[in-house]
Amino acid sequence: MLPQEIIRRKRDGHKLSADEIAAFVQGLTAGSISEGQVGAFAMAVFLNGMSREEAVALTIAMRDSGDVLDWSDLPGPVTDKHSTGGVGDNVSLMLAPIVAACGAYVPMISGRGLGHTGGTLDKMDAIPGYTSQPDVTLFRKTVLETGCAIIGQTADLAPADRRLYAIRDVTGTVESIPLITASILSKKLAAGLGSLVLDVKVGNGAFMEKSRDAVALANSMVEVANGAGLNASALVTGMNEPLASAAGNAVEVKNAVDFLTGRYRDRRLEDVTLALAAEMLQSAGIVSSNQDGIRRATEALAGGRAAAVFARMVSVLGGPGDFIESPEKYLPMAPVELAVKAEQGGFVAGIATRDIGLAVVTLGGGRSRPDDKIDHAVGLTRLLPIGAELRPGEALALVHARTDAEAGAAAAAVRAAYTIGGSKPPAEKTVLRRILPR
Questions:
Q1: Contact 110, 92 (CB under 8 A)
Q2: Residue 188 catalytic?
Q3: Which of 116, 123, 188, 305 is catalytic?
Q4: Which residues, listed in sequence order, are joined to residue 200 by a DSSP beta bridge?
Q5: What are phi and psi of 340, to 5 degrees?
């Protein structure tokens, strides 16, 4: 099949067959289709959309462009979660060990930061010695011995997605729901999961700022995943403020360790983490109700089992054996700390969450270009949540930076991102909606 004919048919609004889609993905993987043709195909999909059947065919073809892992030798269910990305979203670091401590296996293949959002893989790279991209043998060993492994995509899993995404990124076609759906799910299907829970963020710190767009994406991913044979559900969760009180890489790892050990837990972060844990345990068949899932997850945290799983995972993947006891000993620390002082008193009435994420990127904690080197030490901590009361001169946050000038610029950006009002705003729900297959 000629690629230009497939492009023409999609350009003109026709429905592509599974064979046409498979042929195009095969050429995409082999490199026999040019970047211009891939960009034209992505734009045709962006403008005309895809039916559910087309999106399922695209997802399966991209899954089959590389290896598909097999966990049938494990003695328990295999499950995972994917977040569409936010600010201060370090949920994966607690969620994988919590669910593993409850009897499931979680081979979590994560991504790097994208735009203003942080990446789970960048956070794990802040731990000295941690092998975030192990070979399959070490990956399997870690999952079998500890119950979970948080790693990055290997070269052999869904290689078609890597090329398609890189071209979408420079052709203005990232925000296509069918292409987002296929990109995410092809990697999860290649990971050999039995079930998947999707955390679709909505708000001013999410890629989907409007509720209708987030719900459309959640429905698309749930329907396509189930159409491709993967049991999936989704939670739509709020991202109108940072989820944790920390944003950055090492600072979010420290926040996660504090959460696991019970030293400190941000309320909204705990709400989302436990809700996702309950959903994963239910979809994996370990519990029969959401209430039972919350109870099991809470017990795994309170009893220290989740913290022990995280500690073993870090150790097996090459990190320090005593990391959970002494994270400060190992995590990099920025030399400059600067409190962001509020210019007026009152209540935190709103936060421009995307601007908080961009402040971290500007400090060096994220990427402006794909090849940028991450500074794991920089970031923000003690971020006040919406509803917090403060007096003039009290700190909205603490900046961790390399230089005084960078700290000052970040402090100005954070201060501008906060809106202070005279009365306490009503609390927003954290978990907004549950999406099940129709």
A1: yes
A2: yes
A3: 188
A4: 236
A5: -90, 105
